[in-house]
Amino acid sequence: MEQLEGKVAVVTGGGSGIGQGIVGACVEAGMPVVIADIDLDGAERVASAARESGVDALAVQVDVSDRTAMEVLAERAYEEFGEVNLLCCNAGVIVETSIVDSTDADWEWLFRVNVMGAVHGAQAFVPRMREQAGEAHIVNTSSMAGLTVPPVNVAVYAASKHAVVALTDRLRHEVAADGIGVSVLCPGGVASRLFEGHRHAPADLADKITPALRTEGRGRMSPALVGKRVLDAMRA
Questions:
Q1: Which of 32, 207, 220, 226 makes the best surface tag, with the fewest CB within 10 Å?
Q2: Which candidate in 78, 81, 125, 157 is catalytic?
Q3: Catalytic status, residue 157
Q4: What is the CATH number of the domain that holds 171?
Q5: How far are the Cα atoms of 116, 134, 159 from residue 95, in angstroms, in the given order?
């Protein structure tokens, strides 16, 4: 997808962090953008900045773990812009725990958001992308933790991100004949708000995002640089 100006993007988790970085890159490329986030205030703030830059933007509150909510997101995006050329399933959460000490709630929350968020994105958008005239591409955000075994207690997160890599590779094969591109984003350390996910965590999991994890943003790649690299890869 070499020409991005005027193409429409939808970014989940777009109200902060990597998602905001992707939105910023889309705005610089002249792409109308739908910013989806469970934090509506954050999504509205990012959308407002996009509009000030002269780009059409829509903020939508979405819980990606809810398939119906993702269907509503797709409906709103297509009603507003007619088609979606780039879908970035980026929303993600993390907890710090070992496998032995983890709870079913840990696994359920991270897999609902990190894995099912990408699944729900495909289920909601691919049927519509197949019908549209314009080209389409999906980017699912995994992590370097989806390719390696991290040396810290983020086993549940790593397992969910390995799953994202696998499902993205399978999705790429499933939609290739439709002309829909699919990529997986596996960034290393990024100075994002991932470690502030306790804001939206179930009450019994909030304390598993420790102060040590929350302050690991120092010396990490900026979300803006990640966003730029995503679009550079799209153009390649």
A1: 207
A2: 157
A3: yes
A4: 3.40.50.720
A5: 17, 39, 12
